[in-house]
Amino acid sequence: MESMSIHELTATELIQRLESGDLTSVEVVRSFLDRIEQFDEKVQAFLRVESQRALSDAERIDQRRRGGDPVGRLAGLPVAVKDVICTEGQPTTCASRMLQHFTPPYDATVIRRLKQADAILIGKTNMDEFAMGGTTESSTLATTCNPWDLQRVPGGSSGGAAACLAAGMAPLSIGSDTGGSIRQPASFCGVHGLKPTYGLVSRYGLIAFASSLDQIGPLARNAEDLALLLEVLAGHDPSDSTSANLPVPEYSQLVSQPLDGLTLGVVREHFGEGLDSEVQAAVREALRVYESLGATVKDISLPHSRYAIATYYIIACCEASSNLARYDGVHYGYRTDEAAMLADLVAEQRALASRGEATALDDIDSPLVRMYRQTRSEGFGAEVKRRIMLGTYALSHGYYDAYYVKALKVRRLIRNDFDAAFREVDLIAGPVAPTPAYRLGEKTEDPLAMYLGDLYTVSANLAGICALSVPCGLSSDGLPIGLQLQGPPLDEQRLLRAARMYQAVTDWHTRRPEGF
Ligand code: GLN
What we know:
About 40% of the residues lie in helices and about 10% in strands. It has 17 helices and 11 strands. An 11-stranded mixed sheet has the order 1-3-2-4-6-5-10-11-9-7-8, sandwiched between helices. Helix 10 (about 310-325) crosses helix 13, helix 10 (about 310-325) crosses helix 14 (about 400-425) and helix 11 (about 340-355) runs antiparallel to helix 12. The model has no long low-confidence stretch (mean pLDDT about 95).
């Protein structure tokens, strides 16, 4: 087979050819490495590419296959991993100066699962710093461009994960979604992305942003591949206390069964102010496609959805301020260069203290606190600092009840809205994002405008339900548009089947950006 066309095959097709002996894993890996070599200078989806390691892993799998040994579900298939997920012995940076030189001593559970399935880790992908953002522009290490228009953002925070699929530089990738970070970049880059139900995929080894919202999930170029990767990632993990102890459905088998009598809810509040007319038209057209497949479309209301952004940004920032307290220059990662000097100052102060002359170690200008402050102000970028400050404020004495506790109560009301809606409909369909991909720099000066882009995605995280993004159109500028499907907790199989049904009668998922 010509190496030029390997990247055009789906993961499912690649597996078949690897199994039949039509292709070797070395050929597959080499072909994707060639694509990365050719295109990643432009796209910058990867922070690091593990060429040597990937090739030697591929070699080993080919040998095992030749020797007739059993191999895993994803044997020989390259997978790209967002750089928020710990990989033993390979740097994991969160696209932050703070962790730029951090190498985890262990693998995240999802990485262990990928390795058990004999997948090949091809590299780590770019993201917003600590997964905070919607464009990947807050990465301090690289600027990822959208393959559909290199002047535009790939979305975020899993921008690299989506862009590498769109550019044919990997057949599968994994990301994380705290408020839309898998679905929105998938939508901006014309690929599929799924945020699993809270608890379905282990977060052990996922660097925490907002622990009550974070989920790891798959990105792929079609529904079958998404189902296959989810099946590998999902499952109980005693190392994550929020992990659901349930058997994993056979998503890869279920995905091809069409749904009879599907009822789709369309949320009234999702079609209001701010929704781009082309996105609206594409989503409405997708609903007509579902009707032509026998689905019933029903108007529903999620009355508290207008509070979702405020609720999400309070809770996410509060949890972030707590989770990111660990980056103090002592335990992890970056420490200001002044540290040596400061250490001397600490020693000096201690000596003073022992003579009873001063006890200033808890003073905000004490050398120790200066070291913390300097480290954190140099190690974190502006967006991360903004969120730490917002969260610390909202959690502080006097504001805790007014902001944090109130946000938790509204979160419950948002969940109740979904529970009520799912008594009436099977799934909810609507836009992923109010507009297609922004121009690079368009939103960086206006954090609130950036936050508003998360309007349709954050509720799924607040409610802990599952949701995915399916390509459903192109704008007049040739930019991808995504359809979001949301489902009740643990109903991923239905989401995937609905996505597959749509894909069977449309070809949006087969479109590729020009020049790639
Ligand atoms: N864009 C959202 C935010 O900035 C979501 C991020 C995410 O899901 N990690 O918080």
